[in-house]
Design goal:
This protein has about 300 residues and is α/β, with parallel strands linked by helices. The chain has a single domain, classed as 3-Layer(aba) Sandwich (Rossmann fold), CATH 3.40.50. About 35% of the residues lie in helices and about 20% in strands. It has a ten-stranded mixed β-sheet with strand order 1-3-2-9-10-8-7-4-5-6. β7, α8 and β8 form a beta-alpha-beta unit. α3 runs parallel beside α7. The radius of gyration is 19 Å and the shape is globular. S-adenosylmethionine binds next to α3.
Length: about 300
């Protein structure tokens, strides 16, 4: 679907430009935290069907992503002729409405439009780093983010290695990625030593978005495996515990812990930094979210071999 966002002069709307255009077209509306609370009353346990509250196992992940999410998407893509990632987003988000966020501002509207805002916000951060680079996406899903990045001239990515845990997600990536040159699709598993058998070029950019949040133990080993690939820089767009003493901050923290999402990323990076293995370059608590109670933040870091 072409939602007809105007583009900035260099070809891509930033998060705030995207949201301005969507608001002007009546597709998103700025709302208050009270609207969020009315929609999803706080201090009540969220409904979490099919998701165990203990740490997720491989079979939990296989059921959630392999069968339910990417498996049903794949069945729909199989019926379409040359589907694009935008077609897949339309199937995946459907008519669902949500309240999302960009920084401190909250917006209501269809998830498909909140997703446009979300992708634009992340692209804006990446655009200064990706020119001519090999990018590796760990836990790429069906490619909703990474295939858009690959298609984006302003990011000018040289090659993309999209690695995904589920067979169904990898099949979606192959179908949706077929028009692109420079795309390699393969398997990865944060639970397995080494994460992947695919060769990662030293000096690559490593990316995770809402995938490292499923690491259920041994964050240190996952980060050590990444360091051993010798990446130039690593970017995480992941939710984290907030330091925000507001009701929305508490609600976000409660959502993270009730759903058992990984909160160990930043503390583990800090401890590896103290050991001299890496340098944390930037931390932002909230970038954007399609769900305002589960926004992604941003962390970038480099192995010390690159900072010396
Ligand atoms: C919420 S989706 C995010 C997909 C994509 N990164 C994006 O931002 O659109 C989470 C992804 O993480 C993957 N994942 C979950 N656990 C994983 C693990 N142990 N190893 C590798 N990937 C995993 C899932 O299969 C799923 O595709």
């Amino acid at each position: 679907m072409d939602i007809g966002l105007d583009e900035s002069s260099d070809g891509m709307a930033s998060g705030s430009e995207a949201v301005d255009q969507l608001i002007r077209r009546g597709l998103l509306h700025e709302v208050s935290t009270e609207a969020l609370q009315m929609r999803r009353p706080w201090y009540l346990p969220p409904p979490t069907p099919n998701i165990s509250r203990s740490a997720r196992t491989s079979s939990d992940l296989q059921r959630e992503f392999g069968q339910e999410k990417w498996g049903s998407l794949l069945a729909r893509l199989d019926l379409m002729r040359s589907p694009t990632v935008e077609d897949a987003d339309l199937v995946y988000f459907g008519e669902e409405e949500s309240i999302g966020c960009l920084g401190a501002s909250l917006f209501s509207g269809k998830s498909i439009y909140l997703n446009e805002m979300y992708v634009a916000a992340i692209s804006e951060i990446l655009k200064n780093h990706t020119q001519g680079m090999d990018v590796v996406d760990l836990g790429a899903g069906y490619g909703s983010l990474c295939l858009r990045f690959l298609a984006d001239d302003r990011l000018a990515i040289d090659s993309l290695t999209a690695l995904e845990f589920t067979h169904e997600g990898r099949e979606c990536l192959r179908i949706l990625g077929s028009p692109f040159r420079g795309l390699k699709v393969g398997a990865c598993d944060f639970f397995a030593l080494g994460i992947t058998d695919v060769l990662i070029e030293p000096g690559s950019i490593i990316l995770t978005s809402m995938s490292n949040m499923y690491v259920n133990h041994d964050q240190k080993r996952v980060l050590t495996d990444i360091i051993n690939w010798g990446p130039k820089i690593v970017f995480h767009f992941e939710p984290s515990m907030s330091n925000n003493e507001s009701e929305l901050g508490w609600e976000r923290d409660r959502y993270m812990s009730e759903n058992n999402y990984n909160t160990a990323l930043l503390p583990t990076l800090r401890s590896l930094e103290a050991q001299g293995l890496l340098k944390v370059l930037e931390v932002r608590e909230v970038v954007a979210g399609i769900n305002a109670v589960l926004p992604v933040g941003f962390i970038s870091w480099q192995p010390t071999t690159f900072t010396r």
